[in-house]
Every structure is written in structure tokens, then in C-alpha cells.
Amino acid sequence: MNKTYHLLTALHFAVCTLAMIWPGALIANRIEPTVLGLPFLFFWYALWMLVLFAGMWVAFVVRHGGGRHE
Question: Which pTM value belongs to this model?
Fold first, then answer.
């Protein structure tokens, strides 16, 4: 793959990781409001885990074509 693919994948991973630790956790470190019955910080982590999963899935599909390899 080309350098752009690797750079975008690494950037996506870094942004998601930073959103879950410093400084992202400082922004979301509060109990109120509750979202889906969860304190906001728990929702924040769950949201970024879903964003990270979706981005890595897209990177996998782009790299491997999305088909089964046997």
C-alpha cells in the first residue's frame, strides 16, 4: 500500500486514542449529562471505541478488498 494509506490509518488511530486519554478524557470527565443511562465519560469511551472499530474496519476493507481470503 502507499504511504497515504498508512498515514491516514495511523492518524485515525492516534486521534481516537487521544480522544480516550488526555485531552479527550478531560473534556468528557463529568457525570452529567447521562446518555443512554451511562455517565458521559462512559458514553464518550464507548463512542470512540465504535469510531475506532469503524475506521479500522474501513482500513481493512480498503487494504484487503473485503473478500474472504482462502
Answer: 0.83
Q: Take residue 5 and report the three cell numbers written for it.
A: 494509506
pLDDT tens column, 2-61: 899 999 999 999 999 999 998 888 989 888 899 999 999 999 999 999 999 999 999 999
Domain boundaries, the chain: 1-63
Please report where in the chains the cell 451511562 appears, as a residue: 38
3-state SS of the chain is: CCHHHHHHHHHHHHHHHHHHCCCHHHHHCCCCCEECCEEHHHHHHHHHHHHHHHHHHHHHHHHHCCCCCC
Note the Cα 64 to chain centre separation in Å: 20
